[in-house]
Amino acid sequence: MSEIEKLSFEEAMRELEATVGKLETGEATLEESIALYERGAALRAHCEKRLREAEERVEKITLSANGQPEAVKPAEGL
Question: PANTHER family recorded for this chain (predicted)?
Fold first, then answer.
C-alpha cells in the first residue's frame, strides 16, 4: 500500500489543496513543479476513489418497511 493510499479522504484533500497552493505561487522550479503536479494527480485520483467507495457503501444501505436504515451491505471489494 502506497503512502497516499493510507491517507484518509480528508488528509488527502488537505494535502492536495496545499500542493495546488504551492503550484499557484509559481515559485517552484520546473522539476519541483513536475513533482508537485504528479503528486497532486495521485492525490486527486485517491480522493476520487474514496468518494466512489463511499457512494457505493451508501447505495448498499437497505431500508426497512418503515423507511428506516435496516442494514448496511458492504460494497464488493471493500
Answer: EXODEOXYRIBONUCLEASE 7 SMALL SUBUNIT
User: What is 6-75 written as a DSSP string?
Assistant: GS-HHHHHHHHHHHHHHHHHT-S-HHHHHHHHHHHHHHHHHHHHHHHHHHHHHHTEEE-TTS-EEEEPPP
Q: What cell numbers appear for 48 in the block? A: 476520487
pTM value > 0.85: no
Residue 49 amino acid letter = K
- Residues listed for the chain: 78
pLDDT digit string (tens) for 1-41? 899 999 999 999 999 999 999 999 999 999 999 999 999 99
